[in-house]
Amino acid sequence: MKQIGLIEDNSIIRDVYTNYFKATKSFDVVFAVADVTDALALKKSAPFIILLDVNLPSGSGIDGIKALSKHFPGSKIVILSSMVDNKLTKQAMENGAVGYLLKSSSIAYICEALLQMAEGGLPFSPATVAHLIQTKSHNQDDLSGLTKREWELIKLLSDGYSNKVAADKLNVTYFTINQHLKNIYKKLNINSKSELISWFLGKNIQHSVA
Question: How would you class 6 by CB atoms within 10 Å of its CB: exposed for 0-12, middle for 13-18, buried for 19 or more?
């Protein structure tokens, strides 16, 4: 069971998500509060996931990501908002969020996306994954360093598959997938899967692996 914290100012929405998460028996909701300031006042151990709304009484939840990360070290912060904007997605990722889910997505989809995080999945709604843009200067023209298998892995991850599912599809071990990712990150001068998918989508390359 994964611990989860919820920061949502609408009490009705907050209760709906809290009750649903509890009913799944996959999550333990350790706190559900209305604002970032309320969460920062809590003396609790860091939950595995913090779901964070954008429009909050004290201001933008995105601006509170860094303070939350400091107060709850180790927590993975995922934006859960009704706002669809590529600038917000970019800012959230730059501030340290690991995903951006939309309230328009079904709760079942949101739960599955959060559960997949433990296996290397990225919690993004389809409409926000396309907002990922590059935040670093990568050597995008030198593609010869990527192997055929590395391209296969990048394509699978960009299609939304978790590390575990990618390992099954490529008929390799989970450890091998992690080693491939380390090599890819080094070659592209990036540090995370979100940056990798950003690079792939931004480059818009149709690379044949056949």
Answer: buried
Answer whether 98's CB lies under 8 Å from 50's CB: no
Residue 112 vs residues 27, 115, 128: alpha-carbon distances, Å? 11, 5, 16
Distance in angstroms (rounded) separating the CA atoms of residues 26 and 20: 10
Distance CA 138, CA 102 (A): 29
Sequence-separated (6 or more) residues with CB below 8 Å from residue 205: 143
Integer Cα distance of 59 and 168 in angstroms:
43
Residue 209, phi then psi, degrees to nearest 5: -115, 10
pLDDT, tens digit, for every residue of 105-146? 888 889 988 988 877 777 888 777 766 644 444 444 445 478
* CA 153/CA 84 separation, integer angstroms: 28
Alpha carbons 107 and 31: distance in angstroms, whole number:
18
Write down the pLDDT at residue 137.
42
Dihedral angle computed from the Cα positions of residues 136, 142, 148 and 154, in that order, rounded to the nearest 10 degrees: 10
